[in-house]
Write a structure and sequence with these properties.
single chain, Rossmann fold, 2 domains, globular, binds 6-O-phosphono-beta-D-fructofuranose, hydrolase, ARMT1-like_metal-bd
């Protein structure tokens, strides 16, 4: 097993990427939220206080009436009362988003259930880029099966760049189309007509690409059943909930040509259970998947493969640590209870599974490659997890 004592990534170092998330990305995000929704003085004060606390103070607990207080008392017991920058970045960033929901009154009172990120998700669904993505579904009809599968996988992969948290402060000119690792050849043979789990990341454009891929898996028989895991409530800015899946599906079915056909097939698949939306409180946990509870472990164990979308899922899958980049992906995911594939554009420091040559070349030629979204990776671990048998 890999050495899980590789040091965790934290926000302590001024100028580092995680430090910038708290000092640049979060203030910009809160300005956008306040412009998009007319929160009153109480909510705006709470947001300002969250910004102040998360940069300069100790971590406060959730209020006593928080519906998930018991969960967070366990997830945060070592961290409450300590300075935010000293904590693992994965924990502190996740808790920031949980506290952002608290500040906007998402769980109690008149603003209950109002997704603070909904205006951004809606704008993306209504935008030209989304319309172009819908229209592009028609173009794939002329492709061979192999070309279509490659296009669907690639679109789902790079769709991960459409994430508002990232675009708020991204300075990169966009994707280079370069893959730092590509295990896609190992993915297809895992898809033999059984259950596939897709752990969703962002709503709107990324989700559209994910749904198109899922439609293909079901229609081609590559998967007999797909479980699409979404967040139980809003999370890192554009993370997809069931509401976002339905909104995306509505745009597909209201479209024309192949978009409408994909929408109709997926709607039918939802009705007859071949496509199942599911969630779990651990989807919003500030912890690596290594610490997942047994019921979630059993869900993942039942799948022929679990496809993890996006950067945050990668951080949770591999462990948000300063791994040497050549640490084998199969080793850091050895605990996972079944075959697992990561489709991720690289937007934060953690990376594993590179060849020594790739690691050296990327660091030398594109020093910002880990955080600029210029590169992506497809990594696959084909075996079942160590010490865990299917159905146990
Ligand atoms: O939507 P994704 O791909 O999980 O990305 C989330 C983004 O936010 C971060 O958590 C940092 O704020 C990075 O991991 C990434 O830039």
């Amino acid at each position: 097993m890999s050495d899980i004592s590789a040091p965790p990534i934290t926000c302590a170092e001024p100028g580092s990427f995680p430090w910038g998330v708290f000092h640049e990305r979060h203030p910009a995000l809160i300005r956008r939220i306040e412009q998009a929704l007319p929160y009153g003085p109480a909510e705006r004060r709470a947001l300002a206080e969250l910004l102040r606390e998360s940069r300069h103070d100790l971590v406060a607990t959730l209020p006593p009436d928080a519906p998930d207080l018991a969960l967070w008392q366990v997830w945060g017991k070592e961290h409450f009362g300590r300075p935010w920058p000293s904590l693992p970045f994965l924990w502190s960033e996740s808790y920031f988003y949980r506290r952002l929901l608290e500040a906007t009154g998402y769980f109690t009172g008149a603003w209950q259930g109002v997704d603070p990120f909904a205006p951004f998700k809606r704008a993306e669904l209504a935008g030209d880029a989304f319309a172009a993505d819908l229209a592009a579904l028609d173009a794939r009809e002329s492709l061979t099966e192999a070309e279509r599968e490659h296009a669907l996988l690639t679109t789902a992969l790079w769709g991960n760049l459409a994430d508002l948290g990232f675009t708020i402060t991204a300075t990169a000119s966009g994707p280079t189309g370069a893959l730092a690792a590509d295990d896609s050849a190992a993915l297809w043979p895992l898809l033999d007509g059984g259950l596939v789990h897709v752990v969703a990341d962002n709503a709107a454009r990324e989700l559209l690409a994910d749904l198109a891929l899922i439609d293909h898996l079901l229609a081609s028989g590559r998967a007999g059943e797909v479980g699409l895991m979404v967040k139980p409530h809003p999370y890192y800015v554009s993370d997809a909930t069931a509401t976002d899946v339905l909104a995306c599906l509505a745009r597909l079915t209201a479209g024309s040509g192949e978009a409408a056909r994909v929408g109709a097939r997926l709607t039918q698949a939802l009705r007859d259970g071949r496509l199942r939306l599911w969630t779990h409180p651990f989807a919003c946990a500030p912890l690596p998947y290594r610490d997942m509870p047994d019921d979630l472990r059993r869900e993942f164990a039942a799948a022929k493969v679990t496809v993890m979308k996006g950067d945050l899922n990668y951080r949770r899958l591999a462990g948000d640590r300063h791994w040497p980049p050549t640490t084998p992906f199969a080793e850091v995911t050895g605990y996972f209870p079944g075959p697992v594939a990561a489709l991720r554009t690289v937007k934060s420091d953690v990376v594993t599974g590179l060849t020594p040559q790739t690691a050296t070349t990327l660091d030398a030629q594109t020093p910002t490659w880990r955080t600029a979204g210029t590169h992506a990776l497809i990594q696959v671990r084909t075996g079942t997890g160590a010490g865990f048998s299917r159905g146990s």
